[in-house]
Amino acid sequence: MLSHQVVSAYQATEGARHIRMEIRDSDLKKEMAKGLVFVKADLHQIKTVPPKVTDIQQFGIGNCYLLSTLSTILERDPAYINKILKINENGDVEVTLYDVEDPNKIFTYVMDPTKIVGRNRFLPLGRNTHSHDAIYMIEKAYAFHHMIVDQNKYTEDQEYIIEALLNNKHNIHKAFAELTSHPKKTLPPSFKNLKLADVESTEKSFAKHRVDHKSGLTSGSSRVAYASLLGVKALRHDLETEIDEDYFFATFLSHIATFNASYLTGEKLPDNINTLLEKKLVDKAKLYLNKIFGDYRSPEAIYFIRCIDFKTSASLVQENRPFFEYIHVLDSARESIKTKFNKYMTLTDVSNVEERAKQKIFHFIDKEIPYKRGLKTHTTSAQDENYEYIKEQLQQGQLVTLSTKEGVGKKMVKNRISKTGEPLSKGLAGSHSYQVENCYERDGRKYVLLRNPWGRYVRDYEYKSKTVGGHKIDVLSAKAKLQIGSFSLFYKVKAKLFQAFGIKGASKRQNPRSFPISNPAVPLAHSQDYYEQNGFFEVEISDVTKRFDSISLTSKKGSVTPVIKPANRSCILAFLRAMISGNTMGMNHVKNFFNAMLLDKSDPQVQLDISAALAIHYKLIGNEELSAKWLAKLGTNWTLEEAVSHLQREYQKDLPDFTHILSSGAVVANQKRS
Predict the structure, then answer these.
(1) Based on the domain organization, do 221 and 289 belong to the same domain?
(2) Structure confidence by residue, pLDDT tens digits, 542-571
(3) CB < 8 Å & 24+ apart, contacts of 165-170
(4) pTM over 0.85
(5) Quick one: 515 and 623 in the same domain?
(6) Domain boundary among 554, 578, 603
(7) Most CB contacts within 10 A, which of 231, 232, 566, 659?
(8) Which domain of life is it from (predicted)?
């Protein structure tokens, strides 16, 4: 059994429980890391070089959930890792993590300054290949933290007992003596009746549930990782899904015919539907009636039910079947299907409802059945909702990851890129977690910008020509690429060669990434070349909706704020408060203000924030030239609205909402200065 020592258990300050555990390599080598190689960590790198997102390279351990989470944190604030990882005066590495449900429970793991590199220090087998040792130290601590905290295997009382066991090297009698003699104010009331048998059973449970280093990292949750790394509440949000077309065009109509038959027997329709639903026969039918008509009890829904008897249901299924193959491609197929519904939706005694019911059915078919990717800029309700949710969270400053379904394509292949076992299909890995960096549009199509924690193997798109139903169409085809930089020039040359030689499948349409980015959720932090060369890639929103199943995100605004010296932050806040209240300054006054406040302009984050503030400030006082000058310092893609959003996101904990300042009209004409 591991003989870790708790240096200072039961340390209570301001309601927090702070547990410090020594995890020595000598103990790890006996059990959790038996047979693994330990290599001295580069403490100079850890002390002096902030880790970057691109230092994260998953390879041999299935902890994408942890690495994608850590990527979002480092992208927001590379210095954050210094808050949870420190090198103490003895040269040991200390990593501080939080309880998943209670951020007042704090765990500090004191470790030897070594990283675990699998079973062979020269071959990346059973380990990841990060280029910064701080990442390895986080993993080393998290494997143990996962075993103790994340798996929810222990009660509150057992956590106290485990502390005492670790503190006394698993000597049951000494642990029992410590627990029964400790000041009662730090222990639950139930410990008044603590028995030696309780300590013995907890020791057995701890032995049973311990895991090795690799298992301690494998198969976790980004929600749990956010809570552990940041000490904040985190959420899992399930993505909206597309409609089940097979159900809508067949079983749904059969269920409607069942309602119809009951209605004709004289029962009250809504009451009958509720009876059927209580028997759980047609839950899905109610959902679809609500989707189509807004309420399954509405006059339009009742009219539709009265039209569809069993004979009509069978006729609709039979007559629509020839068009199903082309409904995602040809407008004519949709029109033919709508014509069939129009044919059977006719009841003369309620003709005043007829047109409204038909229009809702037609709108549902047009809106909710997706087109083949790339054919149109059309998006379904599910795609719209997913995109807007991601966009809103990013704009609020939340950290976000996206997880794929297990099945990410019709044809999946064995993972030969990483040794973590996920199935692969056209640049996506199944049951895999990705960092969400941004979302935006290109040529009217919506994309989400992601990063694979592998640092390679991403999805890309190119147009291909296909012939469907005698019509030649261009569809946006997905493909995998190993991350070797920008493919923009490659695609242009390839397209011209294919067209010149008449190669089948060549399309004259431009590669989607040749169109400029518009309407990003937040300003782009890097150039397109940077993203393409470092494992980032764009996923079209229909793929997000079809191939991904959930989002993990922080639920607290300002969970991670870039570190700025307190004096600099106070200075910027003072300027922003003055600007928000309508107190404006001329150019000389601004310069004198920042000089008087001793602003350190050498800090890159300060430069960014001041440039954004001054671009807005000069716009408000009518100096367009200076506003454009300071806006240009932010980067080529920034707009004034994005400058406002950036400052609101970074200073939201200290300022009111000022996102509408550009249109508020708070600055009057006589306040303008040159």
Answers:
(1) no
(2) 999 999 999 999 986 656 766 677 788 888
(3) 165/199, 165/202, 165/203, 165/206, 166/2, 166/4, 166/5, 166/6, 166/9, 166/21, 167/5, 167/6, 167/9, 169/3, 169/5, 170/1, 170/2, 170/3, 170/203
(4) no
(5) no
(6) 554
(7) 231
(8) Bacteria
